């Protein structure tokens, strides 16, 4: 089910796709055409792309206040409570990430510091092509609201112009989303980036999505900010002989069922475990509603390797820089220091990644496809900007002046030097 490969084959298969690969170029080209059309045609273009990819377009993109209110009666009380419980955990975790504006230096003659200010308007993309993700509503919106963002505009696709799944409206209310728009895909990213009559232009777009959405975010970056490229889900599991094959298989499937392009990797020191996991995968997939998706992605994108030591497994994991890294070994906490590149880490036999997907507190919007080498999961930091400030008295400038002028001379920027010397001359 999940191909058992040699080290060489494994590394080739897990390597992230290059931006200039044929596949990636195809997504970028498609996204680029749609973005250009939405910039030109606004709402009308958005509507025609919805009709092309998602069936009938909804009458209005904006979900009305009445629809949002009515949604609460359509969701079971226990489900609402579970969402609220998850939201509390996510809020508690993210509140601790908040930074306050602070002074770095506060001497008599020199004051310097850093202001933290929220972004005014953000767009949050909640994927919806093949599943409904209320958890992604919470994960995207809660840190934005905590950071102080005033306009949190959510977009998500609906099929055939149908009403928004009520649970998404409930999650949006719990999280504090300002407006919800029934628009998905590239057209949603373009509308948020450039604005249309009915969808406001935002300053930054966050949230995961499929390869088209990821390509669109890449293309609009610069005109607006983006959080990261969060594409198809991934899990890499490091397991020793103490791991339970039933748990390992379940966790591989949990990511594989997201998408036929989802990636699930197993690195183990035990051949017996690798064999048992494969048997389990077959067994568990049989009864899975999304078995087609899961089996396709496990076969197409999955990979398993038997390594000599756990050190080797960590070396491989750091090369993959996976979105999620599970460490199902004896004494898991002692291995945390070995992790150099991963979006989020799950330690031990009783910490399935699904716990983080829904409930525990850390964010589930995470860098995929090797981008954890240089980027981090969504946090309150994504919704604030830092502005530094500086105050010098005349005396302080006099003391620093010669050094500044010397450096300006080296760059042959005489105007810069004059900005200092003119001030010091006047009093001499
Ligand atoms: N990293 C995370 O935090 C996270 C969380 C949840 C989901 N995910 C991932 O997000 C992805 C969601 O993908 P999805 O497809 O279900 O939903 P999606 O909302 O990202 O994409 C659906 C949209 O894609 C567009 N589309 C479909 N075919 C197209 C085509 N040929 N050309 C242009 N546009 C097209 C349509 O407009 C459609 O509305 C999955 O890969 C899942 O693994 C990631
Ligand atoms: N595993 C996904 C991130 O890759 C997040 C998610 C949402 N719902 C279920 N899972
Ligand atoms: Zn998941």
UniProtKB/TrEMBL annotation:
Pathway terms, separated by semicolons: Amino-acid biosynthesis; L-histidine biosynthesis; L-histidine from 5-phospho-alpha-D-ribose 1-diphosphate: step 9/9
Active site: residue positions: 323 (proton acceptor), 324 (proton acceptor)
Family: Belongs to the histidinol dehydrogenase family.
Cofactor note: Binds 1 zinc ion per subunit.
One GO BP annotation of this record: L-histidine biosynthetic process
Record's keyword terms, sorted: Amino-acid biosynthesis, Histidine biosynthesis, Metal-binding, NAD, Oxidoreductase, Zinc
Membrane listed as a keyword: no
Binding-site residues for substrate, renumbered to this chain: 233, 255, 258, 324, 357, 411, 416
Name the UniProt record assigns to this protein: Histidinol dehydrogenase
PANTHER family in alphabetical order: HISTIDINE BIOSYNTHESIS TRIFUNCTIONAL PROTEIN, HISTIDINOL DEHYDROGENASE HDH
Cofactor: Zn(2+)
Superkingdom of source: Bacteria
Residues given in the record as Zn(2+) binding sites: 255, 258, 357, 416
């Amino acid at each position: 089910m999940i191909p058992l490969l040699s080290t060489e084959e494994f590394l080739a298969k897990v390597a992230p796709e290059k931006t200039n690969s044929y596949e990636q170029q195809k997504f970028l080209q498609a996204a680029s055409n749609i973005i250009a059309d939405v910039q030109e045609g606004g709402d009308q273009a958005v509507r025609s792309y919805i009709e092309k990819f998602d069936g009938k377009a909804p009458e209005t993109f904006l979900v009305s206040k009445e629809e949002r209110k009515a949604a609460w009666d359509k969701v079971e009380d226990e489900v609402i409570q579970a969402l609220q419980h998850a939201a509390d955990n996510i809020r508690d975790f993210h509140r601790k990430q908040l930074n306050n504006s602070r002074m770095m230096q506060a001497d008599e003659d020199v004051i310097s510091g850093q202001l933290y200010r929220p972004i005014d308007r953000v767009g949050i993309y909640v994927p919806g092509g093949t599943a409904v993700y209320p958890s992604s509503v919470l994960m995207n919106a809660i840190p934005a609201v905590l950071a102080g963002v005033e306009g949190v505009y959510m977009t998500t696709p609906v099929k055939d112009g149908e009403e928004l799944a009520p649970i998404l409206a409930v999650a949006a209310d719990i999280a504090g989303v300002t407006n919800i728009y029934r628009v998905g895909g590239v057209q949603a990213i373009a509308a948020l980036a450039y604005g249309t009559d009915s969808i406001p232009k935002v300053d930054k777009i966050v949230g995961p999505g499929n390869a088209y959405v990821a390509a669109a975010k890449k293309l609009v970056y610069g005109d607006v900010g983006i959080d990261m490229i969060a594409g198809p889900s991934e899990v890499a599991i490091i397991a020793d002989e103490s791991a339970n094959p039933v748990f390992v298989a379940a966790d591989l499937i949990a990511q594989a069922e997201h998408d036929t392009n989802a990636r699930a990797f197993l690195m183990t020191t035990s051949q017996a475990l690798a064999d048992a996991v494969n048997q389990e995968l077959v067994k568990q997939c049989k009864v899975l509603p999304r078995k087609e998706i899961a089996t396709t992605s496990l076969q197409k994108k999955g990979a398993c390797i038997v390594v000599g030591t756990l050190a080797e497994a960590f070396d491989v994991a750091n090369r993959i820089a996976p979105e999620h890294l599970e460490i199902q070994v004896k004494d898991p906490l002692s291995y945390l220091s070995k992790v150099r590149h991963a979006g989020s880490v799950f330690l031990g036999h009783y910490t399935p990644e699904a716990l983080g997907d829904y409930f525990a507190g850390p964010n589930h919007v995470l860098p995929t496809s090797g981008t954890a080498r240089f980027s981090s999961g969504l946090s309150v930091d994504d919704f604030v900007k830092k502005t530094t400030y500086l105050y010098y008295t005349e005396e302080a400038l006099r003391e620093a002046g010669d050094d500044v002028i010397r450096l300006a001379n080296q760059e042959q920027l005489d105007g810069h030097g004059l900005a200092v010397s003119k001030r010091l001359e006047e009093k001499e």
